[in-house]
User: What shape does this take?
Amino acid sequence: MQNSEFERNKAVVQRYVDEIQNAHSLDALESIFAEDFVDHMASSGGLFVGGMDGLKRGYAAFLSAFPDLQVTVEDMIAEGDKVVAFKTLTGTHRGTHLGVPPTGKRVTYQIISIYRIKDGKIAAYWGLQDELSLKRQLGVIA
Assistant: This one.
């Protein structure tokens, strides 16, 4: 794999961050995610399962919980068909998330995401987010 392919794969992930996570465009999902996309993230509670329809429902719920979500990519590394992104997420908790009813609190937490890119689209995702920090900020735990 050439460096240019790594850069193309990173550009797919950056486009996802820019268009979906920051601009909140659910219409962009189909052009960024593969139809058979698989979410392997254990902590998401199955938020993004069920094909493209499940992905759209999951993102609609997540953006309802954090309607002012903004994501900053702190670092991104590409190797093979994978891209790893270290990101900081910031938003105001306005809807239920991880079973926690809206608190109105502004939160900032970090996540490490691994994306598998196939044919220029995100085909699979693994991630680990700092749920402990998130739940502390929401007042769920001390």
